[in-house]
Backbone:
């Protein structure tokens, strides 16, 4: 059994949310423990660049970010889910990445040689017709985040054209991501674009 943490950004429970819920059902059916957090439901403040975490390994900002630090630390698999807004994941997802600086500081202090202990999946939706460029700006920050939290980047599940073809009407995709969730025990690398 794996511990799976899901971090969802965005402001509406529509297309990205439908994919996440289907993945979650598959993972739970397979017996995995799943915890889901919505970024918009928490009081998170932006990183101030104070550099305190460079020496302490901890963030000095007193807000609700501790919920996400705990989820990241406890998860075997971390799922990041965000719709695309103006060719990028949402601003609350970027805030999460900025606040992950303590992880980078700890890794740097240890010489960057720690073993990768978790896996990461990225789920995203885009309202426009498919074009790979719509997602390109998201990949490098996610890879850097993976490096910071010592995660193996296992896959992307990217669904386009959701303005015309909402995810809830695309049963084949919901079934496919359900199966990915179900197979989380032996997660293989994947790259899905629709």
Residues:
């Amino acid at each position: 059994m794996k511990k799976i943490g899901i971090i969802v950004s965005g402001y509406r429970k529509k297309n990205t949310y439908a994919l996440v819920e289907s993945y979650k059902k598959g993972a739970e059916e397979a017996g995995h423990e799943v915890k889901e957090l919505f970024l918009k439901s928490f009081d998170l403040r932006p990183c101030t660049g104070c550099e305190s975490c460079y020496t302490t390994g901890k963030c000095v900002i007193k807000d609700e970010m501790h919920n996400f630090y705990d989820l990241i630390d406890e998860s075997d698999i971390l799922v990041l889910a965000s719709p695309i807004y103006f060719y990028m994941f949402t601003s609350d997802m970027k805030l999460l990445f900025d606040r992950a600086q303590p992880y980078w500081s700890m890794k740097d202090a240890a010489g960057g040689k720690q073993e990768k202990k978790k896996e990461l999946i990225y789920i995203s939706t885009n309202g426009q017709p498919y074009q790979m460029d719509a997602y390109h700006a998201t990949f490098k920050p996610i890879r850097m985040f993976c490096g910071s939290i010592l995660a193996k980047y296992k896959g992307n599940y990217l669904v386009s054209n959701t303005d015309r073809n909402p995810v809830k009407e695309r049963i084949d995709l919901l079934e496919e991501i359900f199966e990915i969730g179900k197979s989380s025990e032996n997660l293989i690398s994947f790259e899905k674009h629709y």
Summary: The domain at 3-193 is CATH 3.40.50.360 (Rossmann fold). The radius of gyration is 16 Å. Strands lie at 3-8, 33-38, 77-83, 118-125, 151-159, 190-193.
